[in-house]
Design a protein that fits this description.
alpha+beta; Diaminopimelate Epimerase, Chain A, domain 1; 17-stranded mixed beta sheet
């Protein structure tokens, strides 16, 4: 069985966010325990599994995502990577619909090599920060927001330098997210003047096996409505300033967000253990 590692939200190798992608040969899901073992073996923040749906179904492909610890409700970079794999194999045209745990998600491969994901926008509501959040992050937040069904905390910091220099305690962050049923913590700030992007972010989800995610498409479903409202523009550029870094071009379209990025295949191989 073919399996690939694809760097998403980047146009160069060894940057962005790597995802493993396994396009399944059958017409249903294999044993979940097998998928979880493959995910642990691949040791990426996410591994995507997909199989083709029959004509007339609500979507073209069924899609699931796993971290080494949990199955995810929504994952942007692994969806982009899966779309890139399908386009490389010439199995899709200018649109593909994925049936997922977050409903039907649409991806549009573009002529310039980019891929645009059409995802539901997350709600963003200001809230009181958990008492121990500042200690866990090592910095006092300017503001904290809940993100509805996305289940993240969106934390505003003073400036770009504060986001870049952040050195959180992963054990403390994991304790907060487990206790408060939070998926992860997104920290963000407006970009410094003169940058080629509008805002920066980082994402931490240590309880789900992701101490720091390199580039988090799903987090941008909340970052997009948040920053478009604050900056007064419907189209922006976000840079996730992890060690690998990556760029997400975002657009707010009513209750949907469009997330655009590139992808690069790094590994293309054969998985010798079948389900």
């Amino acid at each position: 069985m073919r399996i690939r590692i694809i760097d998403a939200f980047t146009d160069r190798p060894f940057a962005g966010n790597p995802a493993a992608v396994c396009l399944l040969d059958g017409d249903g899901w294999p044993d979940e325990a097998w998928m979880r073992r493959v995910t642990v073996e691949m040791n990426q923040s996410e591994t995507a599994f997909a199989y083709p749906l029959p004509a007339g179904a609500e979507a073209d492909w069924a899609l699931r995502w796993f971290t080494p610890v949990v199955e995810e409700q929504l994952c942007g970079h692994a969806t982009l990577a899966t779309t890139h794999a399908l386009r490389t194999d010439r199995r899709i045209g200018t649109r593909v619909r994925f049936s997922s745990r977050s409903g039907v998600l649409i991806a549009h491969p573009r002529d310039d090599g980019a891929i645009t994901l059409d995802f539901p926008a997350a709600s963003v509501t200001e809230t009181e920060p958990p008492d121990d959040l500042a200690d866990a992050l090592g910095v006092k937040p300017n503001a904290v927001h809940r993100t509805g069904s996305l289940r993240d905390l969106l934390v505003l910091l003073t400036d770009e330098a504060a986001v870049r220099e952040l050195d959180p305690d992963p054990t403390a962050v994991a304790r907060i997210t487990r206790r408060d049923d939070i998926r992860g913590v997104t920290v963000t700030a407006v970009a410094d003047p003169g940058r080629e992007y509008d805002f920066v972010s980082r994402f931490f989800s240590p309880a789900d096996g992701i101490p720091e995610d390199p580039v988090t498409g799903s987090a941008h479903t909340a970052l997009t409505p948040y920053w478009t409202a604050r900056l007064g523009r419907d189209e922006l550029i976000g840079r996730q300033v992890s060690a690998r870094s990556g760029v997400v071009r975002v657009a707010l379209r009513g209750e949907r967000v469009h997330l655009t990025g590139h992808a690069v295949t790094i590994v293309d191989g054969t998985l010798l253990t079948e389900p």
